[in-house]
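Same chain as my last thread, 115 residues:
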Amino acid sequence: MVSLKSSLKGSSIVETVIAITIIAMCSLIATLVFANVINSTEPIKKYAFEFELEQIIEKTITNNEHTGYIYKYDDFTIERKVEHNTPLPGVNRISFLVKMGKNVYHYNLLTSHID
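reply #2:
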């Protein structure tokens, strides 16, 4: 009679530890990649400062504000500078300097000054 002998072989503790280590390393790499993608929100920050800059320009024109001012936000700073001595009489040059980390953006606006 033929004996059907089946042998079950389980994994050793060393194989289990190696498998858990590989899984942990893969999840660590995935977490780092995900964190880098989330933290690289430079375009989102740029849209945020452009929106705020539009609001400031609209307020500057509407309220006829012709003084320098610094607007501070969490991720960027907008500085408004006014140059009264332009070649055209009654016209002011308003410069907006946006500082976001190492990046600096310049925007210029010409307005008429009404007293």
